[in-house]
């Protein structure tokens, strides 16, 4: 063909997609676009062969090569696919934003599934100029007697076209890398990007350095090459055809996690949309790992992005997995996804399948489900908060670990404790700090649940909102009637006088005007006093800290109630000695010591309070030594 020059034709109706293309935040996207174009070209040719409209030699091995030449600063992406004629180059390359895939679909729309074609060749191709100063195409069409074509553009709107020296069917795109793309001339960097975007593309991809390829050709070596991709990822198989070992191996390979997953969900849907994938529930080493989930989104085996919350429900991002959805376009704005009803259907479907899996596990393999619970509960609770339909499906499978080591549903806990505290759920946030209260509960055959994760505070509020008759109380927030002794004389004047006098003694000696004091007859005589903290004000204070810690003194006054046990010998002694003037100092020491001991069941004492506590302890021991 005669050499030709001209200007690229930009169609105004397609200018917006071009702008979006150039707004990619990651310039490494060019690799995905060029390699997926090559894959697309091969898929087109294979389809034409199937339809009897093209002929290729028997045993043709389709492949894509990516060749790095650090010395000459080039990257080549080459395929043995459909190729292009001069007229097709003019149409699909010179007229920017015409899609070769689109045109192909129109012609063969009745003979094939549109999901088999990925590319938008005219548009995706131009991402090459994000890293290259000059781009060259050498292509030869599959059509008989076609002439090879060379196209060159140096980044402006001008191009050159002439006959190429290519003698095999397919296309090679050569990028002459400029300063903007020099990082991609690093072998390890380029391999990393190929593995990121192309790990599961449907055509074998081979990556080589130019000098290595040249040396092999000169020596006529036929080394066994290994593609960088897996052309048949596990999600393409039917769930019944996959083994447990395959699921585990795929997980380790994709997520570089050598801990085995707990279990997984294989998604496989053809109608009303095409979606395949595998979601894994990972084993957590600590609570903070829940933020490190990763769900990879693919379009026909081409990687799109990690954790696109517009497609994947936000709470599922705590999991790990791969989802392939050909019905989603490769290049699309997040605002589009956010407002697309089709995308919302996909999102709802994924959430439903996960809920169904949890319910199925709970019903059919409850022992395993209980075993998994400590790892999966942050995810389930987050999902319950974020998605109303998800909560409705899984609410009867949500477990609560009790202080006795049992795993109970909310219904089971309430039924078990109905005689002790109807519709009240007592919970523990720190087993060590609240050990005194836990012992008291156990001694009285009462139960509480352990809610010590970051997600538990908002989760409790969500349950209280959804189940309006249920209320959560931390184990130190309320005194169950079951912990108290039944007293016949509770209402008589003598008992009232005893209580009022004790309250006054402690109020006078503690110098804490906001502290409430009440006297109770506890079943356990060993406990001198307990502190109850208002559930409401404590939650408000914790919420304030969670959202930035409002420094507003007095906004959340800690409502403390000091409960004195009238059946305790020390409390009775304080009452008996209250009239003795000689014991005033001792009473002051004992009242403050009892308060601090009760407070230690909630928190570590401040530095000054701890110093005073130690000084008082030494004084008490000195007094005891004197008396003996």
Short description:
The chain has 628 residues and is of the alpha/beta class. It is built from 20 helices and 23 strands.
What can you tell me about this protein's structure?
Helices cover 39% and strands 18% of the residues. It has 20 helices and 23 strands. It has 4 domains: 4-219, Heat Shock Protein 90; 234-365, Ribosomal Protein S5, domain 2 (2-Layer Sandwich); 398-482, Rossmann fold, CATH 3.40.50; 489-521 and 558-627, no CATH class. It is an alpha/beta fold and 628 residues long. Helix 11 (366-386) crosses helix 15 (456-466).
Comma- or semicolon-separated keywords:
23 strands, Heat Shock Protein 90, 20 helices, Rossmann fold, alpha/beta, 5-stranded mixed sheet, 18% strand, 8-stranded mixed sheet, single chain, 628 residues, Ribosomal Protein S5, domain 2
How many individual β-strands? 23
**Largest β-sheet summary:** 8 strands, mixed
The third-level CATH topology of the largest domain is: Heat Shock Protein 90
Helical fraction equals 25-40%
Within the largest sheet, what's the order of strands? Answer: 1-8-7-6-9-4-3-10
How big is the Rg?
Answer: 36 Å
Query: Which residues sit in consecutive blocks of at least 5 with pLDDT less than 50?
Result: 11-24, 97-101, 112-122, 551-556
Instruction: Give the CATH level 1 class of the largest domain.
Output: Alpha Beta
Q: Helix/strand-derived class? A: alpha/beta
């Amino acid at each position: 063909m005669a050499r030709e020059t001209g200007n690229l034709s930009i169609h105004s109706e397609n200018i917006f997609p071009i702008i979006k293309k150039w707004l990619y935040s990651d310039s490494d996207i060019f690799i995905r676009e060029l390699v997926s174009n090559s894959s697309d070209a091969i898929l087109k040719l294979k389809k034409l062969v199937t339809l009897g409209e093209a002929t290729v030699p028997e045993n043709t091995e389709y492949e894509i090569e990516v060749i790095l030449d650090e010395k000459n600063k080039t990257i080549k992406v080459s395929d043995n696919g459909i190729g292009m004629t001069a007229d097709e180059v003019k149409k699909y390359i010179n007229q920017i934003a015409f899609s070769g895939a689109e045109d192909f679909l129109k012609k063969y729309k009745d003979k094939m599934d549109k999901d088999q074609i990925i590319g938008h060749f005219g548009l995706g191709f131009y991402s090459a100029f994000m890293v290259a100063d000059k781009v060259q195409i050498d292509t030869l069409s599959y059509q008989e007697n076609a002439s090879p074509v060379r196209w060159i553009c140096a980044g402006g709107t001008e191009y050159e076209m002439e006959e190429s020296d290519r003698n095999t069917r397919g296309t090679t795109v050569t990028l002459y890398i400029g300063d903007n793309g020099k990082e991609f001339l690093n072998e390890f960097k380029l391999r990393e990007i190929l593995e990121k975007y192309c790990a599961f593309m449907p055509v074998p991809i081979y990556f080589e350095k130019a000098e290595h390829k040249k040396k092999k050709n000169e020596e006529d070596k036929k080394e066994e090459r290994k593609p960088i991709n897996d052309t048949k990822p596990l999600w393409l198989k039917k769930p019944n055809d996959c083994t447990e070992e395959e699921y585990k191996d795929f997980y380790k390979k994709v997520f570089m996690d050598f801990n085995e997953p707990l279990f997984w969900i294989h998604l496989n849907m053809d109608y009303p949309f095409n979606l395949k994938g595998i979601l894994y529930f990972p084993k957590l080493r600590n609570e903070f790992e829940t933020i490190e989930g990763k769900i990879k989104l693919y379009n026909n085996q081409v990687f799109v992005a990690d954790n696109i919350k517009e497609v994947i429900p936000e709470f599922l991002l705590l999991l790990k997995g791969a989802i392939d959805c050909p019905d989603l376009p490769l290049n699309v704005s997040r605002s589009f996804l956010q407002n697309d009803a089709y995308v919302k259907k996909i999102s709802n479907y994924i959430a439903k399948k996960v809920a169904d899996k949890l319910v199925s596990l709970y019903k059919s393999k409850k022992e395993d489900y209980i075993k998994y619970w400590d790892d999966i509960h942050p995810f389930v609770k987050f999902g319950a908060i974020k998605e109303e339909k998800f909560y409705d499906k899984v609410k009867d499978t949500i477990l609560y670990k009790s202080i006795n080591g049992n795993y109970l549903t909310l219904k089971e806990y309430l039924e078990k404790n109905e005689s002790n505290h109807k519709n009240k759920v007592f919970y523990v946030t720190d087993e060590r700090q609240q050990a005194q209260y836990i012992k008291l509960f156990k001694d009285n055959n009462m139960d509480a649940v352990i809610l010590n994760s970051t997600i538990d505070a908002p989760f409790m509020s969500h349950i209280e909102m959804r189940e309006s008759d249920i209320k959560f109380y931390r184990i130190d927030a309320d005194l169950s009637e079951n912990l108290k002794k039944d007293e016949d004389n509770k209402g008589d004047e003598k008992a009232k006088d005893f209580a009022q006098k004790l309250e006054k003694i402690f109020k006078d000696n503690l110098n804490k005007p906001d502290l409430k004091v009440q006297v109770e007859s506890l079943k356990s005589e060993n406990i001198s006093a307990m502190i109850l903290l208002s559930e409401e004000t404590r939650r408000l204070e914790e919420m304030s800290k969670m959202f930035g810690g409002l420094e507003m003194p007095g906004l959340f006054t800690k409502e403390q109630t000091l409960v004195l046990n009238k059946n305790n010998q020390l409390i009775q002694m304080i009452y008996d000695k209250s009239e003795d003037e000689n014991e005033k100092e001792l009473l002051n020491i004992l009242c403050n010591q009892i308060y601090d001991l009760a407070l230690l069941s909630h928190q570590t004492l401040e530095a000054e309070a701890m110093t005073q506590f130690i000084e008082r302890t030494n004084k008490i021991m000195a007094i005891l030594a004197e008396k003996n």
